[in-house]
Amino acid sequence: MRKIFILVATAAALTVAACNTVSGVGQDAAAAGNAVTTAAEDAKH
C-alpha cells in the first residue's frame, strides 16, 4: 500500500510540473501572437 501511495504522489508531482511547463509555453505563445497582431494592426494604419 505504501508503494502505491509513493507512486501516486510521484505521478501527481510530475503532472503538476508538466502543467506549469505547458502553461508557461502557452503564455509565451500568446505573447508572441499578441505582438504579431499589434504589428499587423500598426501596418494597416
Automatic annotation (TrEMBL):
Keywords: Signal. It comes from the Bacteria. PROSITE patterns: PROKAR_LIPOPROTEIN. Residues 1-18 form the signal peptide. The keyword Signal applies. This is Putative small secreted protein. It comes from Brevundimonas lenta.
